[in-house]
Amino acid sequence: MLSVLANRTYRHLFLAQVIALIGTGLATVALGLLAYDIAGGNAGAVLGTALAIKMVAYIGVAPVAGAFANRVPRRALLVAMDVIRAGVALCLPFVDQVWQVYVLIFVLQSASAAFTPTFQATIPDVLPDERDYTRALSLSRLAYDMETLTSPILAAGLLTLISYHWLFSGTAIGFAASALLVVSTVLPRPQPVKDEGGIYDKTTRGIRIYLKTPRLRGLLALTLAAAAASAMVIVNTVVIVRGLGLSQRDVALTLAAFGGGSITAALTLPKILDRVSDRRVMLIAASIMALALAGLAVAARVMPPGSDYWHVLITGWIVLGLAYSASVTPSGRLLRRSANAEDRPALFAAQFALSHVCWLIAYPLVGQVGAHVNMAAAFAAMAILAAIGVIAAARLWPAEDPARIEHSHGDDDVGPEHRKLHADGGHDFVIDRQHTRWPSR
Length: 441
Prior knowledge:
By secondary structure, the chain is an all-alpha fold. The chain has helices at 8-39, 43-68, 74-91, 98-126, 130-159, 165-183, 199-211, 214-243, 248-275, 278-302, 307-328, 331-337, 344-372, 375-396, and strands at 422-424, 427-429.
Protein backbone atom coordinates (compact mmCIF):
# COMPACT_ATOMS: atom_id res chain seq x y z
CA MET A 1 0.00 0.00 0.00
CA LEU A 2 2.90 2.38 0.76
CA SER A 3 4.29 1.95 -2.76
CA VAL A 4 2.13 4.84 -4.03
CA LEU A 5 4.19 7.20 -1.86
CA ALA A 6 6.99 6.78 -4.38
CA ASN A 7 5.03 9.25 -6.53
CA ARG A 8 6.43 12.61 -5.39
CA THR A 9 3.30 14.62 -6.16
CA TYR A 10 1.03 12.20 -4.32
CA ARG A 11 3.47 11.96 -1.41
CA HIS A 12 3.38 15.72 -0.89
CA LEU A 13 -0.41 15.83 -1.21
CA PHE A 14 -0.79 12.97 1.27
CA LEU A 15 1.50 14.67 3.78
CA ALA A 16 -0.50 17.88 3.32
CA GLN A 17 -3.68 15.94 4.11
CA VAL A 18 -2.18 14.31 7.22
CA ILE A 19 -0.81 17.57 8.64
CA ALA A 20 -4.08 19.43 7.98
CA LEU A 21 -6.03 16.61 9.67
CA ILE A 22 -3.86 16.80 12.79
CA GLY A 23 -4.40 20.54 12.91
CA THR A 24 -8.16 20.05 12.55
CA GLY A 25 -8.12 17.50 15.38
CA LEU A 26 -6.36 19.96 17.68
CA ALA A 27 -8.93 22.60 16.77
CA THR A 28 -11.77 20.22 17.64
CA VAL A 29 -10.43 19.76 21.18
CA ALA A 30 -9.71 23.46 21.60
CA LEU A 31 -13.13 24.46 20.28
CA GLY A 32 -14.88 22.37 22.92
CA LEU A 33 -12.86 24.07 25.68
CA LEU A 34 -13.48 27.50 24.13
CA ALA A 35 -17.22 26.83 24.02
CA TYR A 36 -17.18 25.87 27.70
CA ASP A 37 -15.30 29.06 28.56
CA ILE A 38 -17.84 31.20 26.73
CA ALA A 39 -21.10 29.35 27.41
CA GLY A 40 -20.43 27.26 30.52
CA GLY A 41 -23.22 24.72 30.97
CA ASN A 42 -24.61 25.58 27.52
CA ALA A 43 -21.40 24.50 25.79
CA GLY A 44 -23.15 21.40 24.42
CA ALA A 45 -25.76 23.56 22.70
CA VAL A 46 -23.03 25.78 21.26
CA LEU A 47 -21.12 22.80 19.88
CA GLY A 48 -24.31 21.27 18.54
CA THR A 49 -25.09 24.48 16.66
CA ALA A 50 -21.50 24.68 15.40
CA LEU A 51 -21.85 21.12 14.06
CA ALA A 52 -25.08 22.05 12.30
CA ILE A 53 -23.35 25.10 10.78
CA LYS A 54 -20.57 22.81 9.58
CA MET A 55 -23.07 20.55 7.82
CA VAL A 56 -24.89 23.50 6.24
CA ALA A 57 -21.58 24.87 4.94
CA TYR A 58 -20.61 21.48 3.51
CA ILE A 59 -23.97 20.94 1.84
CA GLY A 60 -24.29 24.47 0.47
CA VAL A 61 -20.74 25.40 -0.48
CA ALA A 62 -19.32 22.14 -1.87
CA PRO A 63 -21.48 22.05 -5.05
CA VAL A 64 -20.68 25.69 -5.80
CA ALA A 65 -16.96 25.08 -5.32
CA GLY A 66 -17.13 21.93 -7.44
CA ALA A 67 -18.79 23.83 -10.26
CA PHE A 68 -15.88 26.26 -10.57
CA ALA A 69 -12.95 24.06 -9.50
CA ASN A 70 -11.95 23.38 -13.11
CA ARG A 71 -12.14 27.05 -14.03
CA VAL A 72 -9.27 28.09 -11.74
CA PRO A 73 -5.85 26.51 -11.18
CA ARG A 74 -6.33 23.70 -8.65
CA ARG A 75 -3.11 24.39 -6.80
CA ALA A 76 -4.02 28.04 -6.31
CA LEU A 77 -7.48 27.07 -5.04
CA LEU A 78 -6.11 24.51 -2.57
CA VAL A 79 -3.50 26.91 -1.23
CA ALA A 80 -6.03 29.74 -0.90
CA MET A 81 -8.38 27.53 1.12
CA ASP A 82 -5.51 26.48 3.42
CA VAL A 83 -4.58 30.13 3.96
CA ILE A 84 -8.19 31.02 4.83
CA ARG A 85 -8.41 28.11 7.29
CA ALA A 86 -5.13 29.13 8.93
CA GLY A 87 -6.39 32.70 9.28
CA VAL A 88 -9.63 31.57 10.94
CA ALA A 89 -7.69 29.36 13.36
CA LEU A 90 -5.58 32.34 14.41
CA CYS A 91 -8.73 34.41 15.03
CA LEU A 92 -10.54 31.84 17.20
CA PRO A 93 -8.53 32.40 20.45
CA PHE A 94 -9.64 36.04 20.51
CA VAL A 95 -13.42 35.54 20.31
CA ASP A 96 -15.55 36.19 23.37
CA GLN A 97 -19.08 35.93 21.92
CA VAL A 98 -20.98 32.87 20.76
CA TRP A 99 -22.01 34.49 17.47
CA GLN A 100 -18.35 35.11 16.64
CA VAL A 101 -17.68 31.39 17.03
CA TYR A 102 -20.53 30.63 14.64
CA VAL A 103 -19.30 33.07 11.97
CA LEU A 104 -15.72 31.81 12.10
CA ILE A 105 -16.82 28.17 12.03
CA PHE A 106 -18.92 28.87 8.94
CA VAL A 107 -15.94 30.48 7.17
CA LEU A 108 -13.61 27.66 8.24
CA GLN A 109 -15.96 24.89 7.13
CA SER A 110 -16.81 26.69 3.88
CA ALA A 111 -13.10 26.70 3.05
CA SER A 112 -12.93 23.00 3.92
CA ALA A 113 -15.98 22.36 1.71
CA ALA A 114 -14.08 23.89 -1.21
CA PHE A 115 -10.73 22.26 -0.36
CA THR A 116 -11.72 18.64 0.26
CA PRO A 117 -13.63 17.75 -2.96
CA THR A 118 -11.03 19.53 -5.10
CA PHE A 119 -8.26 17.64 -3.31
CA GLN A 120 -10.10 14.33 -3.74
CA ALA A 121 -10.74 14.97 -7.43
CA THR A 122 -7.05 15.69 -8.04
CA ILE A 123 -5.75 12.33 -6.78
CA PRO A 124 -7.17 10.24 -9.71
CA ASP A 125 -5.28 12.51 -12.11
CA VAL A 126 -2.07 12.11 -10.11
CA LEU A 127 -2.50 8.30 -9.83
CA PRO A 128 -4.31 7.21 -13.03
CA ASP A 129 -3.71 3.48 -12.43
CA GLU A 130 -6.69 2.03 -10.55
CA ARG A 131 -4.56 -0.26 -8.35
CA ASP A 132 -2.50 2.73 -7.21
CA TYR A 133 -5.63 4.81 -6.71
CA THR A 134 -7.20 2.07 -4.59
CA ARG A 135 -4.16 2.07 -2.33
CA ALA A 136 -4.28 5.85 -2.12
CA LEU A 137 -7.91 5.64 -0.96
CA SER A 138 -6.93 3.19 1.77
CA LEU A 139 -4.08 5.45 2.86
CA SER A 140 -6.50 8.37 3.01
CA ARG A 141 -8.91 6.33 5.14
CA LEU A 142 -5.99 5.33 7.36
CA ALA A 143 -5.03 8.99 7.77
CA TYR A 144 -8.55 9.92 8.90
CA ASP A 145 -8.63 7.04 11.37
CA MET A 146 -5.20 7.80 12.78
CA GLU A 147 -6.23 11.41 13.28
CA THR A 148 -9.17 10.35 15.45
CA LEU A 149 -6.75 8.36 17.62
CA THR A 150 -3.69 10.61 17.74
CA SER A 151 -5.10 14.15 17.83
CA PRO A 152 -6.83 13.79 21.24
CA ILE A 153 -3.69 12.17 22.69
CA LEU A 154 -1.49 14.92 21.25
CA ALA A 155 -3.87 17.60 22.51
CA ALA A 156 -3.92 16.06 25.99
CA GLY A 157 -0.13 16.07 26.10
CA LEU A 158 0.11 19.67 24.90
CA LEU A 159 -2.50 20.85 27.40
CA THR A 160 -0.25 19.79 30.26
CA LEU A 161 2.25 22.40 29.02
CA ILE A 162 0.22 25.17 27.39
CA SER A 163 -3.23 26.80 27.41
CA TYR A 164 -5.83 25.45 25.00
CA HIS A 165 -5.68 28.78 23.12
CA TRP A 166 -2.28 27.71 21.78
CA LEU A 167 -3.85 24.64 20.21
CA PHE A 168 -5.41 26.96 17.63
CA SER A 169 -1.87 28.06 16.75
CA GLY A 170 -1.04 24.41 16.12
CA THR A 171 -4.04 24.25 13.82
CA ALA A 172 -2.85 27.33 11.90
CA ILE A 173 0.65 25.84 11.58
CA GLY A 174 -0.88 22.64 10.21
CA PHE A 175 -2.83 24.48 7.52
CA ALA A 176 0.19 26.62 6.63
CA ALA A 177 2.36 23.50 6.27
CA SER A 178 -0.35 21.93 4.13
CA ALA A 179 -0.32 24.98 1.85
CA LEU A 180 3.49 24.83 1.50
CA LEU A 181 3.36 21.15 0.57
CA VAL A 182 0.71 21.83 -2.08
CA VAL A 183 2.83 24.69 -3.46
CA SER A 184 5.75 22.26 -3.79
CA THR A 185 3.80 20.03 -6.20
CA VAL A 186 3.07 20.26 -9.90
CA LEU A 187 -0.57 19.25 -10.32
CA PRO A 188 -2.11 18.02 -13.59
CA ARG A 189 -3.88 20.76 -15.47
CA PRO A 190 -7.67 20.40 -15.35
CA GLN A 191 -9.36 19.67 -18.65
CA PRO A 192 -10.84 22.80 -20.26
CA VAL A 193 -14.57 22.99 -19.76
CA LYS A 194 -16.92 24.64 -22.21
CA ASP A 195 -18.67 27.46 -20.40
CA GLU A 196 -22.27 26.34 -20.83
CA GLY A 197 -25.37 27.32 -18.92
CA GLY A 198 -25.93 29.67 -16.03
CA ILE A 199 -25.07 29.49 -12.36
CA TYR A 200 -27.82 26.95 -11.66
CA ASP A 201 -26.60 24.58 -14.39
CA LYS A 202 -22.99 24.84 -13.21
CA THR A 203 -23.68 24.37 -9.50
CA THR A 204 -26.14 21.52 -9.91
CA ARG A 205 -24.27 19.68 -12.66
CA GLY A 206 -22.40 17.39 -10.29
CA ILE A 207 -25.51 16.47 -8.32
CA ARG A 208 -27.50 15.84 -11.51
CA ILE A 209 -24.77 13.54 -12.87
CA TYR A 210 -24.60 11.80 -9.50
CA LEU A 211 -28.33 11.18 -9.16
CA LYS A 212 -28.62 9.96 -12.77
CA THR A 213 -25.95 7.27 -12.22
CA PRO A 214 -27.40 4.05 -10.72
CA ARG A 215 -24.19 2.95 -9.03
CA LEU A 216 -23.85 6.37 -7.39
CA ARG A 217 -27.44 6.32 -6.18
CA GLY A 218 -26.49 3.02 -4.59
CA LEU A 219 -23.42 4.68 -3.09
CA LEU A 220 -25.60 7.39 -1.54
CA ALA A 221 -27.82 4.75 0.07
CA LEU A 222 -24.74 3.00 1.48
CA THR A 223 -23.52 6.35 2.79
CA LEU A 224 -26.77 6.61 4.75
CA ALA A 225 -26.00 3.23 6.35
CA ALA A 226 -22.48 4.37 7.19
CA ALA A 227 -23.79 7.62 8.66
CA ALA A 228 -26.14 5.66 10.93
CA ALA A 229 -23.26 3.64 12.40
CA SER A 230 -20.79 6.49 12.77
CA ALA A 231 -23.40 8.85 14.23
CA MET A 232 -24.17 6.32 16.96
CA VAL A 233 -20.47 6.09 17.80
CA ILE A 234 -19.71 9.81 17.67
CA VAL A 235 -22.81 11.07 19.48
CA ASN A 236 -23.44 8.43 22.12
CA THR A 237 -20.12 6.82 23.06
CA VAL A 238 -19.45 9.28 25.85
CA VAL A 239 -23.05 9.06 27.08
CA ILE A 240 -23.02 5.26 27.25
CA VAL A 241 -19.57 4.85 28.78
CA ARG A 242 -19.92 7.61 31.36
CA GLY A 243 -23.41 6.30 32.14
CA LEU A 244 -21.78 3.01 33.11
CA GLY A 245 -19.75 4.92 35.70
CA LEU A 246 -16.51 4.55 33.74
CA SER A 247 -13.78 7.15 33.29
CA GLN A 248 -12.79 9.54 30.52
CA ARG A 249 -9.93 7.14 29.77
CA ASP A 250 -12.49 4.41 29.15
CA VAL A 251 -14.33 6.75 26.76
CA ALA A 252 -11.07 7.19 24.81
CA LEU A 253 -10.48 3.42 24.77
CA THR A 254 -13.99 2.78 23.45
CA LEU A 255 -13.54 5.31 20.66
CA ALA A 256 -10.14 3.79 19.93
CA ALA A 257 -11.86 0.42 19.39
CA PHE A 258 -13.90 1.91 16.54
CA GLY A 259 -10.83 3.59 15.08
CA GLY A 260 -8.79 0.40 15.41
CA GLY A 261 -11.40 -1.59 13.51
CA SER A 262 -11.48 1.04 10.78
CA ILE A 263 -7.68 1.06 10.48
CA THR A 264 -7.61 -2.73 10.17
CA ALA A 265 -10.10 -2.61 7.32
CA ALA A 266 -8.19 0.17 5.55
CA LEU A 267 -4.99 -1.90 5.66
CA THR A 268 -6.60 -5.04 4.25
CA LEU A 269 -9.00 -3.56 1.67
CA PRO A 270 -6.58 -3.04 -1.26
CA LYS A 271 -5.91 -6.78 -1.61
CA ILE A 272 -9.59 -7.61 -1.13
CA LEU A 273 -10.68 -5.12 -3.80
CA ASP A 274 -8.20 -6.63 -6.24
CA ARG A 275 -10.30 -9.84 -6.14
CA VAL A 276 -13.82 -8.86 -5.06
CA SER A 277 -16.13 -6.27 -6.65
CA ASP A 278 -16.74 -2.94 -4.96
CA ARG A 279 -20.48 -3.59 -4.88
CA ARG A 280 -20.16 -6.89 -3.03
CA VAL A 281 -17.64 -5.56 -0.50
CA MET A 282 -19.67 -2.44 0.25
CA LEU A 283 -23.03 -4.23 0.50
CA ILE A 284 -21.62 -6.92 2.81
CA ALA A 285 -19.97 -4.29 4.99
CA ALA A 286 -23.15 -2.19 5.24
CA SER A 287 -25.18 -5.32 6.06
CA ILE A 288 -22.75 -6.12 8.88
CA MET A 289 -23.22 -2.59 10.24
CA ALA A 290 -27.02 -3.00 10.30
CA LEU A 291 -26.76 -6.42 12.00
CA ALA A 292 -24.20 -5.17 14.53
CA LEU A 293 -26.39 -2.21 15.46
CA ALA A 294 -29.37 -4.54 15.87
CA GLY A 295 -27.33 -6.87 18.08
CA LEU A 296 -26.14 -3.96 20.22
CA ALA A 297 -29.77 -2.82 20.57
CA VAL A 298 -30.64 -6.23 22.02
CA ALA A 299 -27.60 -6.14 24.31
CA ALA A 300 -28.52 -2.68 25.58
CA ARG A 301 -32.01 -3.94 26.31
CA VAL A 302 -31.24 -7.19 28.14
CA MET A 303 -27.77 -6.76 29.69
CA PRO A 304 -27.35 -5.04 33.06
CA PRO A 305 -24.93 -2.08 33.18
CA GLY A 306 -21.42 -3.14 34.07
CA SER A 307 -18.07 -4.29 32.73
CA ASP A 308 -19.59 -7.20 30.78
CA TYR A 309 -21.76 -4.80 28.80
CA TRP A 310 -18.78 -2.50 28.23
CA HIS A 311 -16.81 -5.40 26.75
CA VAL A 312 -19.73 -6.18 24.44
CA LEU A 313 -19.81 -2.50 23.46
CA ILE A 314 -16.09 -2.45 22.64
CA THR A 315 -16.48 -5.58 20.52
CA GLY A 316 -19.42 -3.97 18.73
CA TRP A 317 -17.40 -0.80 18.10
CA ILE A 318 -14.56 -2.83 16.56
CA VAL A 319 -17.04 -4.56 14.22
CA LEU A 320 -18.68 -1.26 13.32
CA GLY A 321 -15.26 0.29 12.62
CA LEU A 322 -14.28 -2.57 10.31
CA ALA A 323 -17.58 -2.46 8.43
CA TYR A 324 -17.70 1.35 8.28
CA SER A 325 -14.28 1.62 6.66
CA ALA A 326 -15.05 -1.19 4.19
CA SER A 327 -18.29 0.50 3.16
CA VAL A 328 -16.91 4.01 2.54
CA THR A 329 -13.31 3.52 1.35
CA PRO A 330 -14.15 2.27 -2.20
CA SER A 331 -16.43 5.26 -2.88
CA GLY A 332 -13.65 7.20 -4.61
CA ARG A 333 -13.23 4.35 -7.12
CA LEU A 334 -16.90 4.57 -8.04
CA LEU A 335 -16.74 8.34 -8.50
CA ARG A 336 -13.60 8.01 -10.62
CA ARG A 337 -15.25 5.48 -12.93
CA SER A 338 -18.40 7.53 -13.31
CA ALA A 339 -17.01 10.79 -14.63
CA ASN A 340 -14.73 12.38 -17.16
CA ALA A 341 -11.65 14.06 -15.71
CA GLU A 342 -13.25 17.47 -16.26
CA ASP A 343 -16.36 16.43 -14.30
CA ARG A 344 -14.56 14.90 -11.33
CA PRO A 345 -14.46 18.03 -9.12
CA ALA A 346 -18.22 18.52 -9.57
CA LEU A 347 -18.92 14.85 -8.87
CA PHE A 348 -16.67 14.65 -5.80
CA ALA A 349 -18.31 17.86 -4.54
CA ALA A 350 -21.73 16.28 -5.05
CA GLN A 351 -20.68 13.22 -3.02
CA PHE A 352 -19.25 15.51 -0.33
CA ALA A 353 -22.50 17.50 -0.07
CA LEU A 354 -24.95 14.60 -0.35
CA SER A 355 -23.03 12.44 2.13
CA HIS A 356 -23.29 15.21 4.70
CA VAL A 357 -27.04 15.30 4.16
CA CYS A 358 -26.97 11.71 5.44
CA TRP A 359 -25.05 12.78 8.53
CA LEU A 360 -27.41 15.70 9.02
CA ILE A 361 -30.23 13.14 9.20
CA ALA A 362 -28.41 10.68 11.46
CA TYR A 363 -26.81 13.03 14.00
CA PRO A 364 -29.95 14.69 15.39
CA LEU A 365 -32.02 11.51 15.11
CA VAL A 366 -29.67 9.35 17.16
CA GLY A 367 -29.11 12.13 19.69
CA GLN A 368 -32.78 12.83 20.24
CA VAL A 369 -33.80 9.16 20.47
CA GLY A 370 -30.97 8.42 22.89
CA ALA A 371 -31.79 11.42 25.08
CA HIS A 372 -35.60 11.12 25.12
CA VAL A 373 -36.12 7.33 24.91
CA ASN A 374 -33.10 5.16 25.71
CA MET A 375 -29.92 3.77 24.16
CA ALA A 376 -31.56 0.52 23.09
CA ALA A 377 -34.01 2.57 21.04
CA ALA A 378 -31.15 4.66 19.61
CA PHE A 379 -29.32 1.51 18.50
CA ALA A 380 -32.54 0.13 17.00
CA ALA A 381 -33.27 3.38 15.14
CA MET A 382 -29.79 3.40 13.60
CA ALA A 383 -30.10 -0.31 12.72
CA ILE A 384 -33.33 0.45 10.86
CA LEU A 385 -31.72 3.43 9.10
CA ALA A 386 -28.74 1.29 8.08
CA ALA A 387 -31.04 -1.50 6.85
CA ILE A 388 -32.96 1.01 4.74
CA GLY A 389 -29.66 2.08 3.19
CA VAL A 390 -28.62 -1.50 2.43
CA ILE A 391 -31.96 -2.45 0.85
CA ALA A 392 -32.06 0.74 -1.21
CA ALA A 393 -28.47 0.23 -2.40
CA ALA A 394 -29.14 -3.36 -3.45
CA ARG A 395 -32.10 -2.19 -5.53
CA LEU A 396 -30.53 0.97 -6.98
CA TRP A 397 -27.09 -0.44 -7.87
CA PRO A 398 -27.42 -3.10 -10.61
CA ALA A 399 -25.69 -6.37 -9.84
CA GLU A 400 -24.40 -6.48 -13.42
CA ASP A 401 -22.42 -3.28 -13.39
CA PRO A 402 -19.33 -3.35 -15.64
CA ALA A 403 -16.75 -0.79 -14.63
CA ARG A 404 -16.44 0.48 -18.19
CA ILE A 405 -18.50 -0.18 -21.29
CA GLU A 406 -18.58 1.50 -24.67
CA HIS A 407 -21.54 3.80 -25.15
CA SER A 408 -22.64 6.95 -26.89
CA HIS A 409 -24.76 9.88 -25.83
CA GLY A 410 -27.27 11.77 -27.87
CA ASP A 411 -27.69 15.49 -28.22
CA ASP A 412 -29.74 15.60 -25.03
CA ASP A 413 -26.85 14.59 -22.78
CA VAL A 414 -25.07 16.76 -20.26
CA GLY A 415 -22.77 18.17 -22.89
CA PRO A 416 -20.97 17.43 -26.15
CA GLU A 417 -17.82 16.43 -24.32
CA HIS A 418 -19.51 13.14 -23.39
CA ARG A 419 -19.75 11.96 -27.02
CA LYS A 420 -16.15 10.76 -27.14
CA LEU A 421 -13.98 8.02 -25.80
CA HIS A 422 -12.09 9.07 -22.72
CA ALA A 423 -8.46 8.41 -21.96
CA ASP A 424 -6.98 7.55 -18.58
CA GLY A 425 -3.33 6.84 -18.02
CA GLY A 426 -2.77 6.27 -21.72
CA HIS A 427 -5.44 3.56 -22.02
CA ASP A 428 -8.58 4.41 -23.93
CA PHE A 429 -11.86 3.52 -22.29
CA VAL A 430 -15.31 4.92 -21.92
CA ILE A 431 -17.20 5.69 -18.78
CA ASP A 432 -20.14 4.04 -17.09
CA ARG A 433 -22.92 2.95 -19.45
CA GLN A 434 -25.42 4.37 -16.96
CA HIS A 435 -23.54 7.62 -16.48
CA THR A 436 -25.87 10.44 -17.39
CA ARG A 437 -28.97 10.92 -19.47
CA TRP A 438 -31.76 13.37 -18.98
CA PRO A 439 -33.98 15.62 -21.11
CA SER A 440 -32.29 18.48 -22.92
CA ARG A 441 -32.19 21.81 -21.19
